[in-house]
Amino acid sequence: MATAAVSPPQPHVKEYPTNGVWSWLATVDHKRIGMLYLVTALCWFAVGGLEAVIMRMQLQGPNGHVVSAETFNQLFTMHGTTMIFLVVMPLSAAFFNFLIPLQIGARDVAFPRLNAFSYWVFLFGSLFLNFSWIVGSAPNGGWFGYAPLTTLAFSPGLNIDFWLLGLQILGVSSLAAAFNFITTIINMRAPGMTLMRMPMFTWMSFVVQFLLVLAFPVITIALVFLQFDRFFGTTFYTPGAGGDPLLWQHLFWVFGHPEVYILILPAFGLVSEILPTFSRKPLFGYAVMVFSGILIAFLGFGVWAHHMFAVGMGPIADSLFAVSTMLIAIPTGVKIFNWIFTMWGGTIRFTVAMKYAIALVGLFVIGGISGVMHASPPADLQQTDTYFIVAHFHYVLVAGSLMGLWGGIYYYFPKITGRLLSEKIGNWHFWLNFIGVNLTFMPMHWSGLYGMPRRIYTYPTDQGWDLFNMMSSVGAYLQVVAGLFFAYNIIKSWRGGQIAGDNPWGAPSLEWSIPSPAPDYNFAQIPTVTSRYPLWDVASPAVPSDAISSGPLKTSRELGIPMPNPTIRPLFVALFLVLMFASLLLIHKDMFWVAIGGVITFALAMTLTLYSWLLTPLEDAH
Amino acid sequence: MAHDHHSGVEEASHQAMGEEHEHPTWREYKWVALILTLITVIEVWVYYTPFKQSTMFVPVLLGMSAVKFAIVVAFYMHLKYDHKLFRTLFIGPLIIAISTLTALLFLFSKFKY
Amino acid sequence: MTTAAVPHQAHPPTTTGLDHRKVAIWAFIGSECMLFASLISTYLIYKGKSVVGPFPHESWTDPATGHVLQPILNIPVTSMSTFVLLMSSLFMVLALEAVENKNKPAYQGTLRGNSSFWLMATALAGATFLGFQAFEFTSFVHEGLTIRRNLFGSSFFTLTGFHGAHVTAGVLWLLTLYSIDKKRGLGPKDAVLVDICALYWHFVDVVWIAIFTLVYLIS
Lengths: 622, 113, 219
Description:
With 113 residues, chain B is an all-alpha fold. Helices cover 69% and strands 0% of the residues of chain B. Chain B has helices at residues 6-17, 26-47, 57-76, 84-107. In chain B, helix 2 (26-47) runs antiparallel to helix 3 (57-76). Chain C has a domain at 75-217: Up-down Bundle (Four Helix Bundle (Hemerythrin (Met), subunit A)). In chain C, strand 1 (60-61) and strand 2 (68-69) form a beta hairpin. Chain C has helices at residues 20-45, 75-100, 115-142, 151-184, 191-217, and strands at residues 60-61, 68-69.
């Protein structure tokens, strides 16, 4: 394969600093953006975890006095909103960003500056949302914000305004990133990498981007209606004017159900990377895994009203949604079996990453079983709005998504930083986490079936719920200790961990063929791919042996690889966008025209900066 | 502008990919415009006739609009002539959008059955 | 390191041979299908549910004042604006054709090859449509239909407002392309820029086709 086409010396290429604050603020490198997402999401995890711990302290015993009912409402709303939108989704985004170009043999994503923009919108949006705590008006209507409770008549404060504006902002971030990754995966795969040779993480991520692109517009509109009701006096959710409260619920869950598949599929993808490596066996049933992922996504758009079995849709609607919900358990179950068959007969290495992946496989089944139980409308009439549901979704999200993501962090930390996380500390993290999670959420199945409702800030002592709540709270405290081990591991290993080398795990995919940490250009030469497991395919290796790095790492200039220029414009466009949305808050401070003035000013600033961005070339001419 | 480095490589791969560049011509575009106008005229005309009261009015109108929609997408948006990928990228979401809309109408009892 | 032979790797070709931006715009259009489907669904769900008038297709007597409010939609005027938008799509197609064939002798010096003309024609047609919308909105407000008046007002203004905002963004995009064309000329190399604008523009037109039928013609 021809390597370097010799040409006249390049015109003077501006050198940009690679260290220092500005280099991070102006970065368009997908790997750095991935790291930014990772660190930010982990910080929000600590915040969301704190919110949970305070709730568990309040609920530890009956008639708790740790927080008031109003504060409790804010805590469960922010805990849910934070964990979903500021933790699981950005952790997944960290992996999308970091991994996808590496796995497909590309040098970056299709639109590097749009990528940076997505991150900054996420960061500023998350800060905006949490600013509500500082002004004492944290959202308090639940993460699902049911109308008409969230309309102005019943929620006159700024709480819901922060919530709906925050979610609108975060939606922009996710949508922009989705368009980016769809284009990247379709259009930037290395020669020979057909869709059916892509690593499973990239496949699952690909499916997730389509879910994002189709689901987020719907919640955008639902939020627009709420926004217009609250700020401009429209009547979308006002029963007195003929408005139907169910409109909110339907629109929200048309988004909300695909959202939960957005939350789990990336973790599934990570497990599908980890298990084969540590079983030293290819993934069992690759094609079936791909198609079941696609089927889950497709069916995921047809089950939303199973969140509404108690509203009185009628027997036909109930039955149709019950059947579709039960159907979706099939492709999910297929994945579980394929993972088990992957490990069967393999040579298992129980690294921490592997432990987390196996834990997901086992514990997700528990969450899945309770999920199928909810799928029956008559059974759900007892389960809905009780802790039985809380148990279900925490099993799938904490024992599912989060454990998959933790496994992914242990697995990919060496590729990101060049060093291994400590297995010793990791084991403490894992076991404390495993015990803590089960101790927290298993008892909730019982307290739920014994009738403990959701979203109550305290409970009387004669209900038979005391023991289960005590167990859950102890489990939560254990999770905190586990989290401290995790934080300690990351901090200690980032600079001081064991040096990893290119491929510490002996893994098969392209990202392991380049140095750790990866150079800014990723691949010195774009590889040609001839199989699903390029690095295990000794007969036809993806990378010509003369390209394997020896000696000091070459720079992009030395290799003649044109790199995109860093730019601070995406950060400013993001900032103006967020300030534009934030200006609307002033409407509820009786400053209508100041608010409109703010919106117009920031919209203009945003447009002008956007024009500057679009008219600036991505790279220097070459 | 920003991405002109693609053009030279693109020309070559255009041929290589065999991207059908059978364009509609100026004549065909004029026909398309004419048909679109004609259908619109019929739609509005029908609105003012007694046919408006019949039960077939809505299905017929929806049908005519669907034809206009399809013509614009196929010819003006070139979907008929372009890479199959774009067809997939558009038809998939379109199906989900129409299904969701239909399901919502049923759920809010907009169809009398 | 000598200056004689500096290695230089060209960008790898895209996997499909297609431009990134064209792939992205179709993904974006798919997303917009869901956006407008949500708005249209809401409009249809709330059809006939308004407690007070004005109504789109029937008259309403205000019980408080005894005033009779006529059906508020103006089909003849809206038919004209619909026609204008349809024509704008034709102009857009011709603009793209002019840009793609800029260097062909058959197109040079002709109206067919005058890309700026067609870009401006499209923008003006779009602006005319917006003018019609502005006229319609203000006359509705004068007749007592505001966005907060009833469910019809809320859902109608939100749906058509979102559509109008999309048209506005499209007009700005067209004017930007026009000024680039005037400044340095748009040729076949830039066709993809006009192509993605065209795809966006036609989609906005197609959404209007749906709105015109579902909101104006079906009662």
